[in-house]
Amino acid sequence: MKVLIVKLSSLGDVVHTFPALSDAARAIPGLVVDWAVEESLVPLVQLHPAVRRAIPVPLRRLRGNPLAAWRSQEGRAVRAALAAERYDAILDAQGLMKSALIATLARGRRHGFAWGSAREGVASLAYGRRYAIPEVEHMAVRIRRLFAAALGYALPDLAPQRALGVPPAEPGTPYLVLLHGTTWSTKTWTVLRWRELAQIAASEGLAVRVFALGEAETHRAQAIARDLPEVEILPPLPLDRLAPILAGAQGVVTVDSGLGHLAAALGVPTLGLYGPTDARLTGLYGPKALELRAFRPCAPCESAHCKIAPHTLEGPPCMVDHAARAAWRALNVLRFGHADRTQRNAAPATR
């Protein structure tokens, strides 16, 4: 069977599609899979061993002037790549108008979420087969259900499956990765909290690595690392080089971010700090993943602006409530099966 997946972005959404692809590869011998994805995420898609070919879609450059984009050389190249061969099934796992449009450029029967299940209901009109999968479960589970229904196999177990296999970085000093970067200011943790956690990790013999992807993250990373020799700031790297660094970590602490979802998918002990977003529907999904969720009545508000502290530039109250020591204890539950670091022989907890 030959299948085309359409899941264009974002990083976390793409990662949430990996479990469904793993299900399909196990259930269907000889499955051939191509994937249409935003060009910046091609290295990420290629990490999954079931992907034969990633078809880059330069949406960010093409969407400025759709008509000109359609007629451009890049537009013609995308159309030619999508129509190069016929597929037994085209799976739109995104449910947006843009993903539905890309799906229509390929040859084969299109499958996707039904009107009430798609993120943009009108996108469902582009599919030959539609599936009602209500938004009451984690997005990764919903996509697993979509693939199973479209490709005709059963899902006996909906627990997170084995981790995505990526060789870890070269061994050295054990380290913890702190993923502080995120798109909304309401999803950030304060520099003070990150520094406290880094100091706790250092006192327990772990080095600390932080990424600096863009100007805002660089400023925050520098503030976290100031006068803390155990903290190393890593430069911007492509996803296929970031993944081994995450895979080699003793643990990852993350806010709601795409790289956090990738760490969870890699099977690394990953602790998520959640405030305004709903971890139940779009939280971490992996065999060693756990979230600390906000306990305030206003959370999750699903808002990029905090109503009770509107002038807060980082670390709104629901996020500041997460203490560094509590985060460390929770991470150790994932690492050792016990909050006490001395329990090094205990079996790791699974989600």
TrEMBL record:
<dbReference type="InterPro" id="IPR051199">
    <property type="entry name" value="LPS_LOS_Heptosyltrfase"/>
</dbReference>
<dbReference type="InterPro" id="IPR002201">
    <property type="entry name" value="Glyco_trans_9"/>
</dbReference>
<dbReference type="GO" id="GO:0008713">
    <property type="term" value="F:ADP-heptose-lipopolysaccharide heptosyltransferase activity"/>
</dbReference>
<dbReference type="Pfam" id="PF01075">
    <property type="entry name" value="Glyco_transf_9"/>
</dbReference>
<keyword id="KW-0472">Membrane</keyword>
<keyword id="KW-0328">Glycosyltransferase</keyword>
<keyword id="KW-0448">Lipopolysaccharide biosynthesis</keyword>
<dbReference type="GO" id="GO:0005829">
    <property type="term" value="C:cytosol"/>
</dbReference>
<comment type="similarity">
    <text>Belongs to the glycosyltransferase 9 family.</text>
</comment>
<dbReference type="GO" id="GO:0009244">
    <property type="term" value="P:lipopolysaccharide core region biosynthetic process"/>
</dbReference>
<protein>
    <recommendedName>
        <fullName>Lipopolysaccharide heptosyltransferase 1</fullName>
        <ecNumber>2.4.99.23</ecNumber>
    </recommendedName>
</protein>
<keyword id="KW-1003">Cell membrane</keyword>
<keyword id="KW-0997">Cell inner membrane</keyword>
<keyword id="KW-0808">Transferase</keyword>
<dbReference type="GO" id="GO:0005886">
    <property type="term" value="C:plasma membrane"/>
</dbReference>
<dbReference type="InterPro" id="IPR011908">
    <property type="entry name" value="LipoPS_heptosylTferase-I"/>
</dbReference>
<comment type="pathway">
    <text>Bacterial outer membrane biogenesis; LPS core biosynthesis.</text>
</comment>
